[in-house]
Amino acid sequence: MNTTVATTDTEGKTWEGGNQPLKASYGKMMMWFFILSDALTFSGFLAAYGFSRFKFIDAWPIADEVFTHIPFFHGNYPMIYVAFMTFVLIMSSVTMVLAVDAGHHLNKKKVTWYMFLTIIGGIIFVGSQAWEWNTFIKGDFGAVQTKGGNILQFVDTDGNRVAVRDFVAITPTEREVHERSKGLWFVDEDALPPYQINDVVTGFEANSNILVRTQTLNEEGHKTVLSRTESLKALKENGKTVVEGANLHVNEYGSPLFADFFFFITGFHGFHVFSGIVLNIIIFFNVVLGTYERRKSYEMVEKVGLYWHFVDLVWVFVFTFFYLV
Amino acid sequence: MADAHKLEIFRGLVKFKSNTQKIWGVLILLSIITAVEVLLGIYKPSWGTNMVLGMKLLNWIFIILTIVKAYYITWDFMHMRDEVPGLRRAVVWTGIFLICYIIFILLQEGGYVFNVYDKGFIKRDF
Asked: So which residues are the signal peptide here (chain A) (predicted)?
């Protein structure tokens, strides 16, 4: 360790920094305090999520209905994929701590191997998260947003979800996409949605077995399903636009705040995982090149290990508060 | 410094022979906890919706299990168990105090805003 820490002539002195009450090297201690401050940042975000959720406690989206997909499979599998992601991250935490342990025994071959596995685990996790974002952005069933910004979803009389695209009656419209070459030269807009609110109303009237489901939760924690007449009334009086998928402005699953916090918190965490992978790769090459072998200390592996475990630690909380509670 | 690992978990109930063995043991524990969480999350048993101290019983279970997981990640994977009490307290107590504080403030405020909406002072259901 002495080779990594500059020792001055203050060693053994009570004052002038010669005393080391925490018995940890400078780098490790500062990594701990960085982790502490980062933990406070994350808990600030999660507490803000809790604030918004408590604000709309009777209308918050149910996570089990939002994250239901697995790559390459059709059907409804809530939680499975995110459980897999959690397991991948815990597993890569284990290989990291095994790398640290091998470092204590100055076993270069084992450290190299375990660091490599850790990096692979991290890449799988980030890839899974990208897929999860993609699915969330694309959306599932579609919904109608009301003038007040609330979401109306559609179910059949048995309570199963119905996709807007399955019953909508597409009628020709005269509305064209506004491009810079056609109107005001400094204004343009995104592509128009494939169908308008009127198409949804017409399609809804033609299918008598479809009902509207509001975002309000009832006593049992299920979303409220309106009767047929109430559904028509809500759709005609309040319906404003068709929403498919989620972004920072609209969210077909319910409150847009849910999507905002999902993107922000999992994005911030994903960025941490990404930077953790980069740090791990740098340290991996140092291990391969024998830097720590010559230094006779693998403490750098231990420091990035602390960071990597922290990323895992944060995910445990994100998992609970976004997917479980 | 390297060999000073404490190899007991559950207050000495389970002792491991080596650090590597302890790592695998903790992995098994964390996997079991995660599996329990996922199963409860998928099946949502009906007893879980009973309210205990203002929150659903199931949510209490999730949060407590999460804190248990966080404890083992910090104590065994990050080797907090092997650090001196001074460093441990400086990091853990600071974090826990400030996190509890911000959670209390923001959730309290969120509940208040909900009441303002709920009593109809502001209309948003249209």
From this structure: none
